[in-house]
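Final report, Chapter 2: Outcomes

The project's central promise was a pipeline that accepts a single protein chain and returns its three-dimensional structure in a standardized token representation, suitable for archiving and comparison. That pipeline is now operational. To close this chapter, we reproduce one record exactly as it appears in the project archive, with the input sequence first and the structure output second.
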Amino acid sequence: MATPAALVPHIVLPRLELLSDARTRGAECVWGGERLTGETAIDLGVHTDNGFNWFPRACRRCTRSAVRAARDTHPARCTDCKGPTALCDTRQALHELLLELRR
């Protein structure tokens, strides 16, 4: 499963310098360190930091936690999210992704 590219910037990743080689190349969950396979990994896209390309992937449990945090903290930074009923497209997409990750 791949995380939609438009949502990835809203999901907070660990700092690159704190990660092992296995986490930067997607062999282990970028957050929890669990070994990943093609079936268990959620692709978080290619990232570039200081000219270094890295390829974070994550397990479903950790991705769900990160997406939930992004969804819940988004309104504080968004002028379009005014209260619980006025959701911007980004927050709505984060919510839908969270529902998909629960399956």
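Archive annotation: DSSP finds three helices and four strands in the chain.
This record, like all others produced under the grant, will remain available to the consortium after the project formally closes.
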